[in-house]
Structure formats: C-alpha cells, structure tokens
Amino acid sequence: MTDTRMRLDGSAEGSTADLVSRMSEQVSTLVREELALARTEMVEKGKRAGTGAGMLGGAGVLALYGVSTLLLTVGALLALVWPAWLAALVVTVAVLAVAGVAALMGKKQVEQAIPPAPTAAVDSTKRDVNTVKAAVREGRN
User: Fold this and answer.
1) pTM above 0.70, yes or no
2) Residue 83, preceding bond cis, omega within 30 degrees?
3) Which of 5, 110, 118, 131 sits CB 3.0–4.6 Å from 38 for a disulfide?
C-alpha cells in the first residue's frame, strides 16, 4: 500500500521511497537520452567526415592531373630560356616547397579537429547536472 496524500493543488505526494524510486528512474532515463544524443552526434560527425574525405580525395586526384600538366608546361617554357636540366630542377624545388607548406598547413588543421568530442551532448549533460544540483540546494533551503 502506497502512502500518497493529496496536496492542495490536486497533485499526489508520495512517500520518500516512491520519490527516490521516481528520481532514480528519471536520472536513468536522462542518462540514456544523453548517451543517445552523444551517439547521434558522433554518427553525424562521422558521416560528414567520411563524405568530406571522399570529396577531398577525388578533388586531389583531379588536381594532381591538372598540376602535373601545368608543371610540364612551366618546365617546357623554362627550357626555352635555360638548359633542360636547370628548368627541371627549378620546377622540382618549387613543387617540393609548396608541398612542404601544404603539409604544415594540413597538420595544423588535423590538430584543430582532434578530439572529435560530442560537444552538444557534453554541454547538455553539464546543464542537467547543474540543474539537479540547484534543485537539491533549493530543496534543502
């Protein structure tokens, strides 16, 4: 038999055991929902990263063909003025310098993307914890 009393506003007030049981269920539900949110967020980020990586890969292949043709043209133009070996050397050094700069910029971008944490879920969980703490403090006062 559950000890429930009617309050003046019409809602039922349960025993301490009932309240603790309901609180436990609500916290459990909240944790499950927060985990589901984090999972959904991570799946979405993973899909976006995969799509972006595929597009970048395709663009890279096309750019490689275009840059190769451009470098061949530059080498041929320089060979009109300089010996062929010097023209080839200048083009090679320029390509390696650009590759080095691109590698450093790429490394910086990768470092900024790590860790791929579910920030929305973490923020939501922090808000929930703060709300529960505030409710506990108010309940004691």
Assistant:
1) no
2) no
3) 118
